[in-house]
Structure formats: C-alpha cells, structure tokens
Amino acid sequence: MSLSAQVNIPSLNKTVTIPTGLFINNEFVPSVDSQELIHAINPATEETICSVVAASSKDIDVAVAAARKAFQTTWGKNVTGFERSRLINKLADLIERDASELAEIETLNNGKPFKIARDFDIGDSIQCLRYYAGWADKIIGQSLEVDNKTKFAFTRHDPIGVCVFHGTIQSICGMAWKVAPALATGCTIVMKPSELTPLTALKLSELVKEAGFPPGVLNTVPSLGPVGGAALASHLDVDKVAFTGSTITGRKIMEAAAKSNLKKVSLELGGKSPHLVFESADLEQAAAWAALGICYNSGQDCTAGSRVYVQESVYEKFLEQLVAKVKAQVISHGFDESSGGGPVVSKGQYDRVWGYIESGKQEGAKVLLGGVKRSEKGYWVDPTIFTDIRPDMRIVKEEIFGPVLSVGVFKTEEEAIALANDTTYGLGAGLHSNDANQCMRVSSALEAGTVWINQYNLLNNNVPFGGKKQSGIGRELGSYALEEYTSVKAVHWNFGEKLEWPL
User: Fold this and answer.
1) Which end of the chain is more exposed for a tag (fewer CB within 10 A), N or C?
2) pLDDT digits 0-9 by tens, 329-347
3) What is the per-residue DSSP string for 118-143?
4) Which positions are catalytic residues (predicted)?
5) Does a structural domain hold residue 33?
6) Interior CA angle at 114 toward 108 and 115, to 5°?
7) Active-site annotation, residues
C-alpha cells in the first residue's frame, strides 16, 4: 500500500497529505510481516478518512531496537542538554507553523471543534514542549558530604532509557505531556497512538524528522491494543511505559510490566470527578465552570466533572443557571465556527454512553436535559443532565467518558466531602465557595490529585497533574514529571581512606 493518503476537507476546500506508514528510524515504512490496517473514522460522518499500517509484534521489536540504538549512540548521555533543548524548541516552532493543518487533522479524526483543537490542544502542546525545552539543560543532582577529609558522594539523574507511550483515546496535548519531559531528560520513545485517533501522531512524526532529531529518538507505531499495546507493555527491552486510558487497561499494563522486566510504569487513568457548589459561591460562575467540566471535549476527558453536588439552599437556583449554560453550548461539526463540542470519538464510545443514559433512566434518575438521540449520521450525544440521583446508580459510580452529568444535593460541608470522596477514583475535584476558610478545609479533605477552587479543568504546564486511588500512578507536567523519566544514581568517591586488609 501507499505510505501516504490525500484527504479532502470539503468544508475548507483543501486537501491534506497524511503519512500512513510506521515511523521508525525517521522513515515511514510498511509492516515487516502484516497487511493489517487501522481505519481512521470521522466520527461526525461515520466515514473512513484513510487507513494506516497496523504494527505487528515484530514491528514493535524493530521500533524498540531503533529506540535502544539511538539511546546508546546519538541521544541519551551522548548529547548535551543544550542540544536537546534546541531540538525540542525547533519541534515546537514547526508545530506552531503547522498548527492549522494539525488542528484540521485532529478535527477530522476525533470530532473536536477546529478552533479548540488549534487554540487549546495544539497551543498547549507548543507551550509544553517549550516549557520542557527549558528544563533540558537543568537536570541536576546533589553533592553530599560524607567525610570531608576522605570521601564524598554525588547523585546523577540519568535518563531512564527507552520509553513507551500509548493511550486508548489520545489527543496531541496528551502526547506532548509525555514526549516533552522524556526528550528533555534524554530518553528515546516508541509511541503507540490510539487506534481510534492515529493521524495527528503520524503527521507530528514528519515534524520530528524535519526538526533534526536523530533517527530512532522518536518512533510512532499505530497498532491494535491487544497486539502493539500488549507487546510494548511486556517488552523486555523497554524501560518505562506511560499509559493514558481506562483503569481496566491500566491494570493489564501494570501486570504485564511486572511479569516481564519490572519496567517503570506511570498511569493516567479514569475519573469520576466531583464538583461541589456551596451556598456562598458565585452561582453564575459556578454554573459556567460546571458546564465546562462536563461539556469540554464532549465529556471525553479523564477529569470531566461528571458529579455535581449543590448545597440545598441554592440547589434550584443553581440548576436553572446550569441548564441555561449547557443549552447555550453548540454541538456540531468541528468546522462549524459556532461549535463548542463535537461527536464522541467512535461507535463503541457512542454505544457505551447511550447505554449509561438508558441505565440512568431505568434506575430512576430524572432527565433534566438531553437524553434524546439525534436521527442524523454521526456519533452525536447531546449534553445530558440527570437529577434525583442515588449513590448506587451506575451513572453516579462509573466513568462514562461522555457528556453525561449527575447532579445531587447536600446540606452540610461534611456531607459534601463524604459524597465527593465516595468513589474509587481520585483524579480531579472542584469546589465553589467565597468562604476562604471553607476553601482551605474542603480542598484539604478532597481525595484527588488535582483540586480546583472557583474554576475547573484548567491545567498549567508548570503544575503537576495525576491521580490518587484507582485514577493512576505518577505525575505529568511540572518539574515532577522529570522524575518519571530519570533514575537517580548515587556515586561514592573515596579519595583518602585506605582499606586495611584482612578485616
């Protein structure tokens, strides 16, 4: 098959070229032993955009070998932090240059509105790369006093080696969060993009070569999860795996890592994030942030604020404002200028979300908004709000990964905290209050890796992000992410002590 595809974007009256091969050693190549393809689908039309090569387990071996060779020869400890910084900055510049085209591909493949893909996802990716480019020449250890007369010790933060990144649903900024600190520390990469959305990663790989990275530093191998994902998780020559996706898959990866070579693992998994609205809050703003929490990316966000609990005294007033905010969100094709949200990413996800909506109805929750299917083609799920919820309902307990919101009520601060923490997850949480003491008490009590006060779902590249409980292990972003891609080596240096022997 051809290793590129010409893809038409009728709404823009243009054609884009997308590479469709495996990106190994800075070249797009076919599979060494398989004819299997991954079909990239436009979720807004249900039509196939193009098909890309699906890597086999042998292709995974080739990609890992390329990454290992680069780590040992042209990257890793063989290049200075200044050079790593220069190349990462160059990659950021190229992404900025091609931001519109990358956003167009994102919109085609995952349904996200073009303006959001360009200004938020790709804009954040550029910033993330530049942030870690600044760290590349600042990876430092410690000098430790042992005995000033005879010896001392020091530490080095060495790059961990060959790192694998993959996810079940992945955007360009999710890739940047992992790629940027890994490159900054000197690691090499094998990236398995989501089999649902592989196109942006392949286009990005072209820019890696153009930026001047040595062959093998970053390799991109689209593959089916049970094939490529499983092979990478259990590979004996991989030093670290970072995964974004479901808790169920995260467990499998952790098990495979343990059974193979005990490779380092970081997991950014599911969430059932709570959003607390207290009576002192600015209700109009709280409603706006709650709407963002469930509508952004059509609810396909690990930190989606899918449970909102409101203090009884302001419950009815808040609901009115919340419904008005959510109704104002336009869910349409990604190239529609008015669109603030698109379809969910796949037929499988569409069926999953609608299964939860029907479950909510059957278990007795009240549909306040939405809950009705569209007749048109596309994987559309309009924002749906449930009230009259109980803690044992599936829509309250389980991650839906779609624009489905459960709204409950509480009387006291203690009850609010108990409701918020009544989950196996611990990724994000939000609270709205104008009582400063309450903000401190509640943010301290919430069991989540990230807590937002009087806002929701906004992240910064210099602030760490990650989960507690079954929401994952490890941290992304900020200086904390550097620890995920380095190993600390202690060096003991004796310059004066003489050993008397025998003992």
Assistant:
1) C
2) 999 999 999 999 999 999 9
3) IIIIIHHHHHHHHHHHTTTT-----E
4) 268
5) no
6) 170
7) 268
As given in the structure block, the two tokens for residue 34 are 């398989």
CB distance 310 to 407 below 8 Å: yes
Question: For residue 89, is it within any domain?
Answer: yes
Strand arrangement, sheet containing 366-369: 366-369, 384-387, 404-410, 307-311, 274-277, 428-432, 450-453
Residue 1 is predicted with a pLDDT of: 62
433: exposed, middle or buried (Cβ count in 10 Å: 0-12, 13-18, 19+): buried
Distance between CA atoms of 365 and 307, rounded to whole angstroms?
13
User: How many CB atoms are closer than 10 A to CB 104?
Assistant: 24
Category of 46 on φ-ψ map: left (φ > 0), alpha (ψ -120 to 50) or beta: left
pLDDT in tens, 267-286: 999 999 999 999 999 999 99
Give every CB contact of residue 73 below 8 A, 6+ residues apart in sequence.
none
What's the predicted TM-score (pTM) here?
0.95
Residue in the block written with tokens 């993330």: 128
pLDDT in tens, 56-101: 999 999 999 999 999 999 999 999 999 999 999 999 999 999 999 9
What is d(CA 213, CA 217) in angstroms, rounded to the nearest whole number? 7
Cβ partners under 8 Å of residue 276, min gap 6: 308, 309, 410, 416, 417, 420, 429, 430, 431, 432, 433, 442
Q: Is the dihedral of CA 43, 113, 246, 95 positive or negative?
A: positive
Q: Is beta strand 151-159 parallel, antiparallel or unpaired with respect to 486-494?
A: antiparallel
Q: What is the DSSP-derived secondary structure letter of residue 68?
A: H
- Give the torsion sign (CA, 143, 144, 145, 150): negative
**Which CATH number is 97's domain given?**
3.40.605.10
Q: What is the dihedral of CA 170, 174, 176, 179, to 10 degrees?
A: -80
Domain residues for the domain of 304 are: 274-453
Query: Which alpha helices (H) appear in 75-161, and where do they start and end?
Result: 81-97, 99-110, 114-116, 123-133
